[in-house]
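Technical appendix A lists one of the benchmark inputs used to test multi-chain prediction within the project. The record comprises two sequence entries:
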Amino acid sequence: MTLSPFAPSALPDLPPIEGLRFATCAAGIKYHGRTDLMLAVLDEGTSVAGVLTTSKTSSAPVLWCRGNLRRGGGARALVVNSGNANAFTGKRGQEAVQITAEAAAQAVGCAPQEVFLASTGVIGEPLAADKFCGLLDGLARDAQGDSAAWSDAARAIMTTDTYAKLATRKLKPGGQERGDITINGIAKGSGMIAPDMATTLAFVFTDARISGEALQAALSRTVRKTFNCMTVDGDTSTSDTLLLFATGKAAGVPYISSPADPGFAEFAAALEQILRDMAIMVAKDGEGLSKFVTINVAGAENWAAARKIALSIANSPLVKTAIAGEDPNWGRIVMAVGKAGEAADRDRLGISFGGIEVARDGERSPGYDEAAAAAYMKNPEIVIDVDVGIASGAATVWTCDLTHGYISINADYRS
Amino acid sequence: MTLSPFAPSALPDLPPIEGLRFATCAAGIKYHGRTDLMLAVLDEGTSVAGVLTTSKTSSAPVLWCRGNLRRGGGARALVVNSGNANAFTGKRGQEAVQITAEAAAQAVGCAPQEVFLASTGVIGEPLAADKFCGLLDGLARDAQGDSAAWSDAARAIMTTDTYAKLATRKLKPGGQERGDITINGIAKGSGMIAPDMATTLAFVFTDARISGEALQAALSRTVRKTFNCMTVDGDTSTSDTLLLFATGKAAGVPYISSPADPGFAEFAAALEQILRDMAIMVAKDGEGLSKFVTINVAGAENWAAARKIALSIANSPLVKTAIAGEDPNWGRIVMAVGKAGEAADRDRLGISFGGIEVARDGERSPGYDEAAAAAYMKNPEIVIDVDVGIASGAATVWTCDLTHGYISINADYRS
């Protein structure tokens, strides 16, 4: 596997979060010579929020998490496996979920409904949960909260990812003299990535003192402009899961019981930053990518229309291949704006690549410099600005190009 | 350019249609060493119908044709150029259309509003119509109606097509003892092909005696299940144009003035057959394809829901690459059903490849034979049957796989 050109030279050191420990192991679910099972152990009093795929063929773990979230209780454990998505596995899939939750509950000392589950990997193959459930006792015993535990956890959930994805933020709700809040997150990509809720697997942990209700409110409003504005291939997974856990162990910070409380807006802003960091990391490891692409659409009817146009550009195979070919092919951008189905004024459309204006008022810019645009397209990070000339709705979407690497990875992923 | 594996060894001989002649030439618009300009001359009394792209960034010729069709007059000429789409060319694009229509009108001896236009090729480059308009007089003088003229016309409108697309049908509305009606068509692909009306350029000609109103009714109802059920890459063009011309010269056949008239249903049925032939020909020449794929979805809420699910499967990069890799990866079909947004019962879903059942009732079939499915996937033509288990809506969509060839063609098409 070729490393993404955006892979970091070193993984960031994540600070510990009190009330949270991890352990991982190689359970041999599908991969050989790497870890594929991760357990997060959460102290009593941990609140939880989540957003899950809107797919009509959701996986068994997604349905399990949805049930737990609806019930509104807390969280004591998170079990994630890679190599098998436990999706489209019928009754056996539900049984695998039940067995895993019960084993984790026993290992951690909680109710099965306090165990959250996520699986990623091949769809349609039964998941032999009984084979790895015996390992959970040992994982619970060995779990650690240090920096190495964080990177081990991020690595265990990877599938076709070429690097582990970790992000961290700190905020001081009451100023320097008070306590602070840590938010850490891990995520995985890197194919079957398209936003229709959360996309991919991502787990965010904080020591904030916050109710489940307020946590869900913060997550629901921040996921829209972060994970839901990121796409690799337009293929929405059956297993998209983003869970957010708050252990409530931060000292000297106020308790947030509802979105009206002081400190909520600040927490939500920090959460949005870390979710954006993570979404960009996933896009920067899109299968086979050679370039990372930011698409800013302005002048649309509203944010939702701007996002739809930006996604139409981001998911267009012709736009993606043009970028791979380092071709400032604005004609394909015009096409993708046109097919999005949202209002756009053909005769007021403007397009720039990296600030180089290529089109204005519905035709090529008078001063367009093809050589400059072509030179810009050689950069690893490409920014495309589009103004559709209707109103003031704006949105940003992150994606990557479509290369021979994507074909190579996906034409023989399963076999 | 690698020839499509479905390219015919010889082009079909199309019978002449009275009242219709073609001429082509190499105008040097973009390509060298090939024809790129086509003129069809139609006798007085020719009625016309059309369906045009729904893109919000329609090309100048599309807007011109839409105006002509709305006006409701007849047709006397069709001018098509390849190499430049005259799309996103602003005022200059409209001027190029006006100049071309006036030159063709003068060459043929009709009003500019009786001239229909279509352009295909690069988007965003101004079309220098003045350079080729001088050629139209000569083309009008030299136009022929024989079989060679048909294949020349089909070749002149090609862009990345690897073979010319021609189809023909005959019908005898009154039985053997009466006269017959001929319908001939030419079309081009083979990228930026996704159905949102007609997709691509296609021109159908008949000698039927039929009003413009009845012709439009026949076209509108038959395009839904033919051209609008075909996709190569999900990218809807700015220039999609399907025009249908009837010279009214057939002898011994009744005049069809409205859809209620005898003979209309029979004509529409023959039209549907030829449009289906042409749509399949376009999919079989999809850019870089190695396999032609037919997707039958059943058990959906209605036809529109079934079509949407089938298109979600057909446009999924992960499904398309799995087929390229000869992998019977039903998990990706499940994903694509799930993301389509239409009702589907995950626990009643059934999937077959070429009649080999791989999944039933939401999980892998008990008797699934992986070796047989893998052997089937080696065929050049793949049929996928999906039952989503809700109601009785069914639809068929035609597409192709996604290969390294598509990337190669599109990562340096413009430069």
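Residues 195-199 of chain A have pLDDT under 50 and may be disordered. Chain A touches chain B through 74 residues (CB under 8 Å). Comparable benchmark entries are summarised in Table A2.
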